[in-house]
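Board notes (copied after class):
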Amino acid sequence: MHFLIIKLYVFMKPKYLLKIIVASIAVALIAGCRQVLDTPSYGFYNESEILKTETDANGLLLGAYSEMTKRNWNLFHNCYWIVIDFDNDHVVGPNWAMGTIGSGAFQGFWGMDRVWSGLFSIVNRCNQVLEKVPAMSIDETVKNNVLGEAQALRAWAYFTLVRMYGELPLRPKSMEADPAVKVPRSPIGEVYKFIVSDLKTAIPKLLPKGHPKGGGVGRLNKPAAHAILAHVYLTMASGNQKGISISVRGGKETDNTAKKYTQSGVAGYETFDSQEYFKKSRAASDSIIKGNSGGSFDLAPYPDVFSKAQINGTEALWYLQFKAGTDVINNMSLWYNTTDPKLGYGGWVWVSNNFYDSFEETDLRALKGIKHQFIADGPAPYFYPQRDAAKYAWTWNDMPARYLNRAFLTKYFDVSNSALQETDGSFFLERFANVLLMFAEAENEVNGPTAAAYDALNRVRRRSKASEAPPAMTQEEFRSFVLEERGKELAQECTRKFDLLRRDIYLQVMNAIAIDQENNVKSRSKKHLLYPIPQSDIDASNKAVVQNPGW
């Protein structure tokens, strides 16, 4: 089955008896598992009496995973994808939905602080695993895998944090082991050193995909950690490219021409050797492509890759799966889907006309991956899948329906019950298409647009029946083409803003739009390169943690 009943372990300081607050909660376990952890309830025991079995070790680890999926609004239940995905050049929605994060008023969003706290909760729970599990007398293979998962998950949390907030307080120990609050922010280079070290230490411990002693489907494994490492290296490499050019299509609603921008480099990334890290990203991606990372992967048919039935298919490296009827749910379908007649509302996030118009006529990511909605006469919604049907739809007064034409991506449509506000849509964190595009980008930066770079890029395009990438592109043209392809392939998967940031073109791209088609403010200033740190954490640190500039 695809969910787990787990126990959450919360530790007090070692000198006291340990009180375990046992909460039987259904968690998605990052896509769930094929087994149910059925551990007995615990009362007041010390650690040596409780942490004895493989089930106990896994239960402790699942407490870290649960921070990503539980119904507390912090991360993937709601706030994570709003904070990250509502702030890019492709997303559109009404002002009431986009008036805070989507318009640059980050501190105006009620859930802004929850992403910081949720990610650091993952860090703390991973630290608990790394402190408690080594002393357990359990199967060494299982033990090492649990420890590897904890390190890889901690690395992912810090990787997300450093891209959002820049310099960070590094906490290699849990709050129980080291309750110090005056922990200053470490330089970005030190944070990445910590992330890379965690991943490189975790990978040898982690088991291959499908190993019987592994954590099960959806949990971190060896190839998933390789994918995260490739992503980390790619970010480090591209963040310190200076003087290179890249073109992005977009701007005002009626302007979809390509505009050339020049990278100056991301602040804090100056010490990274760009070529060295592109080579490392290429190697990590290539190991997955060639099946040398602990699993065999391929592209799934489009759009089956996003269906509930196929979510754990050949393309999946790491994903979140939720369970309808439990507290492990999200409301992505409510926001990203068209208005559901059974629910009567929803459908608040769609893609811009410029983005939609960038797809070729034959591209399945437009033909099957986008669904239109318009209001023809009165409140009744009408739906159709045809690419340009809205151009031929007319209302009672012979006005074209374009003014209410909305292009919704269908990635989060397949849920158990679309009439519910919160349901069980799945979410990819790393998938094989991203690996291919990371390889294509890194190969181009190292060797230019080689046959290998073209092959990786065209594998993604062939799957969606788009035309082959133009032959004989220059390195700059290929770089720009890959960035655009990433935007199309990974839309609404919380990657676009991070891509613009690491390429040092976020401000330029957003300011070229200024005001979007729904009259939301897209103009941004330097303060928007980083998110604001919660004031409560600054105060709790006795000012050891300082706020990001401009907030």
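Comment from the instructor: Confidence is low (pLDDT under 50) at residues 1-46, 376-403. Residues 333-349+360-425 form one domain.
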